[in-house]
Design goal:
The chain is mainly α and 334 residues long. The chain has two domains: 15-144, 2-Layer Sandwich (Nucleotidyltransferase, domain 5); 162-333, Hypothetical protein af1432 (Orthogonal Bundle), CATH 1.10.3210.10. The chain is built from 15 helices and six strands. The chain has helices at residues 15-23, 31-39, 56-68, 83-95, 114-127, 140-149, 162-171, 177-189, 191-194, 200-210, 222-233, 240-252, 261-264, 271-291, 314-321, and strands at 50-53, 80-82, 132-135, 297-301, 304-308, 330-333. Strands 1-3-2 form a three-stranded mixed beta sheet. Strands 4-5-6 form a three-stranded mixed beta sheet, with helices on one face. Helix 1 (15-23) packs across helix 5 (114-127). The model has no long low-confidence stretch (mean pLDDT 92).
Amino acid sequence: SNGKIVDVLSLDIGTVRLKELFFDKKNLNKLPKFLSQITAQIDERFKCPNLIAIGGSLRAISSAIMSKNLYPLSSLHSFCYKLGDEQAYIESIANVSVLELNKFPIKKDRYDTIREGAHIFLALAKALNAKNVITSGVGVREGVFLKDFLRPSLKFPENFNPSVKSLQDRFILSCNKAVARYAKDIFVALKKLHGLNESYLETLLIAAKLHNVGQEIGFYGDHKNSAYIILNALNYGFSHEQKALIAAVIGTNGKKNIYEFEKYKNLLPKAECVRWLSFILALAKALDITCEKLNLSFEFSGHTLKIEGAKEFAMSKEEIKKIAKPEIFAISFV
């Protein structure tokens, strides 16, 4: 509840124990009864439609599902799937013979306990009434570190995201506060024109803060470098859909053709949404070239976006001319 642990339950069950009791001794007919006795300890307090999958076996299962579905992202952390869509596949892993495990995209070092893990997972998911599975890439090591690091609250401060801060500290030498400020003001000013849901503003602000995270790799094509880093290193607190959108907004770089749209389209909103967010970011970046320390204001009226405070800056105007507008309207400097 609100990021706090309200109750815990530990069950005396594990993959190695299951292997020794039932798989090694060929007692699989007794396995369902054993699992039902264990899961009977789970009461209504713990039932929830969303289940977070932690641990090697569950990550291996998620990885196999990603491979089967030709999933566009390689990042396992935050991979989500509906249990109803994949239950039959997980059951096939649980019930296959060890000699047939090579038919599944599972690493050999998981062969010894993957079937046991699948049985436990399915039993627990049923007992918890789980519908959606969210894969976690973290485990005991991260837990031990954060328990000590975040004492006594065990929570990160408000408005602090460790993934965003880590990327900023490692890769960004300049401050992007002006870009984020301009992007927010432009989004608000053009609200009636773009009609985007307010939830996209947070995505836009993250993109504004991290738009040049790949610049240190190489100046030319830095937007593509930045998009790659976002897809592979922005983890904590972001869904795959959010990561894909942030990367697309940055990678599109104010152009008409959306960055890797065909590859990630199942994770992205409509193309017009991506174009609008990328346009706003590109406009904010162009204004930041010469107007970083200026308090610009934005107003949309008469089908014209009026930018007050940057009238004398020719460089910004030239950069703005290169940006592809998602819709026909005028931009004027007053």
